[in-house]
Hydrogenase expression/formation protein HypE (Singulisphaera acidiphila), 362 residues
Amino acid sequence: MSEPAGMLDPELFGACPVPQSRYDQIVLGHGGGGLLTNELIQRLFVPAFRNDVLEALEDQATLRFGTDNGVKAPRIAFTTDAFVVRPLFFPGGDIGKLAVHGTVNDLAVGGARPLFLSAAFILEEGLPLADLKRIVASMRSACDEAGVTLVTGDTKVVDRGKGDKVFITTSGLGLVPEGRSLSIRSARPGDCLVVSGTIGDHGIAIMSVREGIEFETVLESDTAPLTDLVRVMLDACPSIRAMRDPTRGGVSSALNELAEASGVGVRLDEAAIPVGAEVRGACEMLGLDPLYVANEGKLIAVVPAEDAERLVAVMRTHPLGRNAALIGQVVAEHPGMVTLRSIVGGERVVTLLSGEQLPRIC
């Protein structure tokens, strides 16, 4: 039988357990943070650039630059991200604020103290200068709030119609204290899973603007710098094993990645997962699952069971953790798989998002 149209060359990409996802060109789903993103990374980028740091697939790379006269050099956390959100301005934020928060948060959930950022701007000919000024001012304010300094950057302009107003790429550097080691490979059966607040706010805020959906109250993106919340959490509970910010692909992607990396199972309790009334209503109306909707100011923590309730109590004293909740457990059963105990009873598998629920969300 001949290779179906649209399939990738098996000699280049090998066998695939989900053949229908093997495209010979990029589709929007490859940027969704779910199954297609995972396959693109594992089949193309990891083999091309293979090294131990990259293969860990953390939100940031933690590096040490040798020793100096027998003294260990500080550990550096490094991360990079690109932002293509549409629209540029949305309730609660804009592409500039999102670019700073997204990069700072990738450093913070790795236990690092974010220090420096770079930013590259891809600008489309015809972009109003007033919009760019607004974005830059927002980025400056976000840097001040997060306690980071933007120290270098680049600007490029593309022809009218060859971009979409503004794309921003940011990179970040931070310091990781000695003795601190957070990793999605560290989860152990018996650990508990904690989320810092309601899920799905960012994705639905973006969708409400695109689709003209109105709510009784203004639904805003949750975009925020998690640096201070992480500091409070680690000061109170150094035993935290891992943290992840569930951005593209939502809680589902973050937990599937953790289950796979640690070789454990994850069991969630649907009744315990905090979802705002507007988000829940919008998801029901649009046929979306909040577990797959992006967040930009939330985190998930893996913590030993004996420390879980204390951690939740501490998080609830912080403005960004006031709706923190214990949402599930790490289990030995079904390694690499996430399951959900539903409100009405029964259990279902929470798989990686197979396509693109909400494109251009960050």
Notes: The chain has ten helices and 16 strands. The two ends are 41 Å apart (CA to CA).
